[in-house]
Write a structure and sequence with these properties.
Helices cover 33% and strands 27% of the residues. By secondary structure, the chain is α/β, with parallel strands linked by helices. The protein has a single domain (2-199), classed as P-loop containing nucleotide triphosphate hydrolases (Rossmann fold, 3-Layer(aba) Sandwich), CATH 3.40.50. The strands form 2 sheets. It has a 6-stranded mixed β-sheet, with helices on both faces. Strands 2-1-4-5 form a 4-stranded antiparallel β-sheet, with helices on one face. Strand 1 (2-11) and strand 2 (15-25) form a beta hairpin. Bound molecules: adenosine-5'-triphosphate and magnesium ion. Adenosine-5'-triphosphate binds at residues 11, 13, 15, 17, 35, 37-43.
Amino acid sequence: MVEFKNVSKIYPGQQTALKNVTLMIEPGEFVSIVGQSGTGKTTLVKLILAEERPSKGRIVIGGWDITDIKQREIPTLRKQIGVVFQDFKLLPRKTLFENVAFALEVGGETWDKIQEIVPQVLRIVGLESKMGRFPNQVSGGEQQRAVVARSLAHRPKILVADEPTGNLDSINSRDIIELLKKINDFGTTVLLVTHNREVVNDLHRRVITMEDGVVISDKQRGKYLL
Ligand SMILES: Nc1ncnc2c1ncn2[C@@H]1O[C@H](COP(=O)(O)OP(=O)(O)OP(=O)(O)O)[C@@H](O)[C@H]1O
Ligand SMILES: [Mg+2]
């Protein structure tokens, strides 16, 4: 589902973020990526989304070699990948319904389809009854769940979550992780970048540990080693 073959990323200014990374994530896996700050985790995510291009090596997503992806093909790639970041970026003047709907409108979905999909994904995250509220009328945890709902709108094959619990307390964090597990149970491949030791150790899933742009450990049912 996600394949990196000898991928290096050197940012302008000679900052090396990834060094010869090779990894393979199979469909349906739930993989945590851990590592100290500045070890290349977000860079890895950006390469998957084609927000950045590799300096060396090849990247294949769902059988599609995106190493030299054309600008006009990027929306097609992004529809296959749901993204959740630490700082929930809901649009403040739109309701939760409208926030999720907006993602679909931008993707060219019909209004009928939008009316069908939005309540479905909000139900998955337990927010169907609050879909008429604005972001500032729900809690931080609920906002992040709405972000997860939005990321699911396109029924992505892969969900990439970069520190999704970074701004949340432990109870809300647990809710988000439970949600990611549920989404994974539906068959979506989940890639979770996190600093949260408890989260990783409770998951009992594959853990990839990064250090200085290199994968230093990759274990099934791994532990947070740092
Ligand atoms: N656009 C950029 N230009 C130059 N250097 C960058 C850029 N983005 C990231 N870097 C550098 O690349 C390295 C890896 O950054 P990255 O954001 O991937 O780290 P990270 O593992 O996600 O860290 P954190 O845990 O703090 O989020 C860092 O040294 C960072 O300073
Ligand atoms: Mg990061």
